[in-house]
Amino acid sequence: MGMMRNAPRRIARFVSQMRDGIPEVDVSEQDGVRSLHLGSNTVQSSMRVSAPFDLEVTYTRGMMCFLLFTKVAKTVLVIGLGGGSIPKFIHHYMPEIHTTAVELNPAVIEAARNQFFLPPNNERLEVIAADGAVYINERLETHDVIMLDAYDSKGLAEDLSSQNFYDHCHRALTADGILVVNLWGSDKNFDLYVQRMQHSFDGAVLILPTGHPGNIAVFAFKRHAGDLRLASLRERAKKLEADLKVEFSEFLKRLIDYNVHSVNRLIV
Asked: For labeling, which of 107, 182, 203, 220 is most exposed (least CB within 10 Å)?
């Protein structure tokens, strides 16, 4: 007889006072995992209650693979907060990095703080209620890494996937900056979004299918992607894996499989 799974139960709801059309935020819990929903049953973000600062969902761990390509990131901008998984992880495990998170819906911020252990703003973490597209437009070479996870109940926000937006991301990154974007492989516009990033970033793009359920992390490099020799990357993956308990070696294998490479290096 298989183990019986408990049905998810709703434990909290947060409603935005902003304007019509912004969905309420529901929080559910099942088998020790707490999840955030935006106006539907789709899980936007999950956290294991016993390990609130770890990355429960595979694709969020995949997005951390920017660490394979930079040793000097000091400022990270996250657009789209969800339960705050990525800002929490960086804040907890990488004290040398300053993280700014921008989220349109204040109810999401409230839920992340109230139910998902998102720390209050401090000298290393700033969470801002704002429109990410407007925010990025006002930055010039201010962030080493921009991480974009801006799906809502209806899909990817249009103004966070336009050519204009990716151009602004390029401009907002420092000289060796990296843009990291979570996309759905099944999105009918997937190829279009990747082409836009290739256009903004002069073709310097890598894709990483993270596995089930089809989330693909896309990495776009402003200038160059650091040391791309496979031996160096494998060594770096092993070290990061030991430090952060994320399966970087497995992700690196996928990066090599899905992107152009020679016998001894990735080619970007």
From this structure: 203
